[in-house]
Amino acid sequence: MNNGTLLAAVDLGSNSYRLEIGRYEGDQIHRREYLKETVRQGNGLDDERNLTAEAMQRGWDCLARFGERLAGFKKAQVRAVATQTLREARNRETFLKRAHQVLGFPIEVISGQEEARLIYQGVVHLLPQSDERRLVVDIGGRSTEIILGQRFDPQVMESYRVGSVAWSKKYFPQGEFTVAAFERAKVAAKAVLDEALGSYGPGRWDVAYGSSGTIGAVGDVLGAAGWSDGRVSREGLEWLLEQLMAARNANRIRIDGLKEDRREVIGGGVSVLLAVFELLEIDEMQVAQGALRHGVLYDMLDREHGETDIRSTTVQRLATTFSTDAEQARRVGQVACDLLRQLRANSDDAEELARHQRQLGWAAQLHEIGSRISHSDYHKHGAYILDNADALGFAQPELHRLGLLILGHRGKLRKLEADLEDGLFVQYLLCLRLAVLLCHARRQPDLKGLQLRADGRQFVLTLRADWSEYYPQSAHLLREEVTAWQRTMWAFKLA
Fold it and tell me: Concatenated DSSP letters for 240-299?
């Protein structure tokens, strides 16, 4: 990535939507612009877990404003992620279809673990280098992420369904602050977070950091009141609780440093933060500058470099977990990527081709992960595994697309009919199918003289004159592949 490139991250949170624009300079991203709007979409889930029309409209209106600011940005410069509210919403596809249109860029609904990983990356990239063991906590609108890590390596991470918006709505519905309400809210939060004690308890970390949302708001209030700036202490948190109790209602709060958009959800946020402090025996927490949106920006840099792309590590772990044949996966990947290079020689620059080959290589690495379950239907089981895996670095649509390649790498193509409109997907699929076919004997195939080219919706594989004589079984399989594509809108021919 060239110095001076602008990158943008959009965070569709349960309480607020945020847009961070940064400029890449010398392995760092420097802020150029930051926009935040309180959308409070987490309050818009009804009893059936559907977003109300009003909640969706608030989101669309905000994204339209963000989209205007992002006009002129290329797809590779922008990444938008959505968190717990859209993870829960049953009608999220209705919202996302329109959201994509008004923002102008696709929106990924990321898993809780992926959110936790990105939060950790955002926090540590804005901290000095250190060997300290770091506990990172982020209390959002409908979820709380807790991560334990060292340097840039998040070692334990989890997302819990407890947050400032959800807890305020449930335990302080009229904004009334009472001793009993705070106690109920804190006990309920502890019940959800209790399993965190074994992984994140005392002795497992050196310094605690709090990211974004509630913890940032509490830090602002304590700083304005003269407590240690940039830190949240147990004593300061108890003082803030006393101020809320004295106000008796969210509408009556008059505390320096508390922004208006936090007033309605401060009760729920403080009760969850108290639960975290007590459960994990935290005496003091530093307010971190980094957050989810910063993690998204730095992850975009990692995705540009295969050796640091967390998705490559995730694929390797999946392959190891399901005991795939690594040597066969390497052969298939090598052949598939070589064929893709031939197809895209005139349309991609070096970086773009490397990105396509990396993605196709992942499919090759994982094409046999279903073999532990079934020999004959392993492609179906492999696709199911990916559709249901919680794979770090991947958004669900990416995993689904990878699963479709695995589903389609053998057998009839009719099962993928709806996906064959996508020309790039078809190229990936054809290259993977041909690679599996050519490596059917589980040894390195002879590719001398084989050339694959595209002509509109037709693909032509040219063979050297004596190839079919030397490899009759492979030639037979290639002829069957020609027949398989005849039943689609695409054509595959041999020459």
Answer: HHHHHHHH-BGGG---TT--HHHHTTHHHHHHHHHHHHHHHT-SEEEEES--HHHHHHHH
Residue 306, pLDDT > 70, answer: no
Residues 245 and 357 in one domain: no
Give the phi and the psi of residue 482 in degrees, each rounded to 5.
Answer: -60, -45
Q: What are phi and psi of 159, to 5 degrees?
A: -120, 130
In-domain check, residue 450 = no
Q: In this predicted structure, what is the pLDDT of residue 303?
A: 83
C-alpha span between 338 and 360 (Å, rounded): 11
Domain identity same for 196 and 314? no
Q: Identify any residues that bridge with 207 across adjacent strands, giving them in sequence order.
A: 134
pLDDT in tens, 216-260: 999 999 999 998 778 999 999 999 999 999 999 998 999 999 988
DSSP letter string over 224-253? HTTSPTTEEEHHHHHHHHHHHHHH-BGGG-
pLDDT given for residue 391 in this prediction: 85
Whether residue 466 lies inside any domain: the answer is: no
Beta bridge partners of 150: 133, 153
Dihedral over Cα of 140, 143, 146, 151: its sign: negative
CATH classification of the domain holding 76 = 3.30.420.40
Shared domain check, 61 and 191: no
Q: What angle do CA 85, 315, 99 make, to 5 degrees?
A: 30
Find out whether 209 and 290 touch, Cβ atoms under 8 Å.
Answer: no
- Using alpha carbons, select from 416, 435, 474, 410 the residue that is nearest to residue 343: 435
Tell me the C-alpha distance between 272 and 292, whole Å: 19
Q: Are 12 and 82 in contact (CB under 8 A)?
A: yes
Closest residue by Cα to residue 435 from 444, 424, 448 = 444
Four-residue CA torsion sign, 74, 76, 81, 87:
positive
Burial class (CB in 10 A: 0-12, 13-18, 19+), 320: exposed
Please tell me the total count of domains within the chain.
Answer: 3
pLDDT at 213: 85
Q: Give the Cβ contact number of residue 471 at 10 Å.
A: 17
pLDDT digits (tens, 9 = 90+) for 138-153: 999 999 999 999 999 9
**8 A C-beta contact, residue 119 and residue 252:** no
Partnered with residue 188 across adjacent β-strands are none
So what's the pLDDT on residue 375?
86
| Residues 253, 395 within the same domain | no
pTM of full prediction above 0.85: no
Q: How confident is the model at residue 307 (pLDDT cuts 50, 70, 90)?
A: low
Which DSSP state fits 413? Answer: S
pLDDT, one tens digit per residue, over 48-95 is: 999 999 999 999 999 999 999 999 999 989 999 999 999 999 999 999
Range of the domain at 95: 6-110
